[in-house]
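Give me the fold.
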Amino acid sequence: MISNFSFLLFIQEMIIINKTGFNPYLPSWEYIPDAEPYVFNDRVYVYGSHDKFNGHVYCLNNYVTWSAPVDDLTDWKYEGVIYEKTDDPLNPDGSMCLYAPDVTEGPDGRYYLYYVLDKVPVVSVAVSDTPAGKFEFYGYVKDQNGELLGERDSDEPQFDPGVLREGNKTYLYTGFCSKGDLSRSGAMATVLGEDMLTIIEDTVFVLPSDTNSEGTGFEGYEFFEAPSIRKIGQVYYLIYSSISMHELCYATSDYPTKDFVYQGVIISNNDMHIDSYKPDDKPMYYGGNNHGSIIQIQNDWFIFYHRHTNGSNFSRQGCLEEIIINDDGTITQVEMTSCGPNRKPFKGTGEFPAYIACNLLHEDENPYTGDLWMDSHFPKITQDGKDGDQEPGYIMNMTHSSTAGFKYFDCQDIKRVKIKVRGYCKGVFEVKTQWNSEPLGEIEVGFTNVWTEYESEIVIPDGLQSLYFTYNGNGRPSLASFSLEQ
């Protein structure tokens, strides 16, 4: 049973986070990657897998969902556990994980949850009367002979289901193709009937893997995983994670199951390909796999994606950015920011938590390594305590050359900057408005085993600014927050 004190802390954390509009958009102790966002009944619901803080593999927790009103993406409400690992008959002991799901509304007005367990090749389905659940097991996707999709002789294993219903048909997209795997062909599409389970049009391949992409137009951006389908007007948009893993790409077609054409990258959790403030091939964050989708909320469009924290692939957090659908239907790649849910720059005064860093750099950085990999030389966003503890996030291991970047702030008359630091260290934090610019000033820090505030008189130029904090010195300080004062 949760104590009254713990409950109050939980509510306080939600209010603080929800009303600031930070990325990540959920509390700093919540780890929901692979987001599929939908608008149901004037609320935005986010369905994803559920990582564990300090987890040793992906997706160790049960499915939960959060929702927000369509007119305020900073006001997220925890809806609770919507489905447990043991709810699937194939997983009575809970030893298998619930991988990335998707949800669609059926022709009967109920909500259908599609997912794959981590050690079986079939697609499971659960159903609920409401978008917030709780969902109950419904069945497995099967053909008209009762054979399960993924187990038939001609099937490839199913993975990462994405769904779109039109009338009495539901289009199911699945697939996983690691680099160089000759046994996998690409992203698959299968059409289901009115019962949301039974195949009425058999599987076809709609996006190529890297082993069969020559001459397709997808070269260098082949399908890896995470297919997600949306329809804008009469055009189908298939969002997916490319073979590079860190980027969400998209392809379009006038048809749901054929003729998809590669269009471009929507976002990269390395911030690669962005050349507005750095070389386009320079990573600005420690990346990894990416999974998410686009959604129209009122009159605007957004991309939901995830980033990697805790020096691991296995503690991922959801972020979002506003995107523009151009007149020709293309989407221009957007950069990662700290203020995505806020939809505008932060007012450039007050205290800001360090875990909202959208850029995190070190002189020995690598774009992607694919496993547990950050040792004590590299900065990482983390938290104290264990999974489920509502502890605020911070940046750990700010060793020499480590840089944390934050975007964007509307600054006016800022003359003093403060930081909260702890750890064995002796050095300075340089304050800059570009990742590689000359510092505006520096703040000296020293050894402290508790969070200690340091400050310096530093003038930030008026107007729209990015802020970067670079540590130069000995040791490995942690950074909890920074404050801007007039």
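Residues 4 and 364 are 46 Å apart (CA to CA).
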